[in-house]
Design goal:
cadherin binding, single chain, mainly beta, 0% helix, Cadherin, 230 residues, elongated, membrane, Cadherin-like_sf, 3 domains, calcium ion binding
Length: 230
């Protein structure tokens, strides 16, 4: 069942079972074949006796896929591919973080998609780490700081995930780290309440005007003590 075109036999009296095309472990990992035997050729007009034998085949997964960084989205037409998004995070200028950095959409994490094998994953930074500011834990993927950064900057780190027993199976993810001014204060609105006026029948994206001043568009603005010039 569901294995048409995969298995065949060759030989008449001592047949061998062989594969006609590669198996996809994600589609099925075991199958049962029914082998027919007859004591006369198919074209014979003589009485023919037949027998059957059931052959159960267990399929083992092979190490065919490179690590996947999570979260990722699998392609509908190819279950062997999973597309991940870049990671991103922020650190403050002139501040040393002693804890693993918080990243979006989550911490650096990769798996071996050959799930019955599940090779251990090893992480390393292979690019973008100017002045060795950052380190990645080889076992956990946690990203930490080695030193402070004294000016605004952006690091585009290339983090590689390899299988511990097969470094040729690897994937690389981009991690964008922005160095920003520390934010101590929340933004605040200049006014507690804003009042505006709109007119009936206006098309979409028309301005809302200040109440009592129909010639001036209503503007809502916020300030932040951390960024007085913005």
């Amino acid at each position: 069942q569901d294995t048409d075109g995969y298995f065949a036999i060759r030989g008449v009296n001592n047949p061998e079972i062989y594969l006609q095309k590669a198996l996809d472990y994600d589609k099925f990992n075991s199958t049962t074949l029914l082998l027919y035997a007859r004591d006369r050729p198919v074209t014979s007009t003589d009485p023919t006796n037949t027998g059957t034998a059931t052959i159960t085949i267990t399929i083992q997964q092979s190490d065919t896929r490179a690590p996947w960084f999570l979260p990722c989205t699998r392609l509908h037409d190819d279950s062997s591919v999973c597309i991940s998004s870049p990671y991103s995070g922020r650190v403050n200028i002139s501040e040393m973080s002693t804890e693993p950095l918080l990243l979006e959409p989550g911490p650096i994490y990769a798996i071996d998609p050959d799930y019955t094998i599940r090779e251990r994953i090893v992480y390393s930074i292979v690019g973008g780490n100017t002045d060795e500011v950052f380190s990645v834990d080889a076992d956990t993927g946690n990203l930490t700081m080695n030193k402070i950064v004294t000016s605004p900057d952006t690091f585009l780190l290339q983090v590689m995930a390899t299988q511990a027993n097969n470094i040729r199976k690897y994937s690389v993810a981009t991690v964008e780290i922005k160095v920003i001014n520390k934010s101590n204060f929340p933004p605040y609105f200049e006014n507690g309440v804003y009042s505006g006026t709109v007119f009936v029948g206006l098309p979409q994206k028309s301005f809302v005007y200040q109440a009592g001043d129909p010639s001036t568009p209503l503007v809502i603005t916020a300030m932040d003590q951390d960024f007085p010039d913005v």
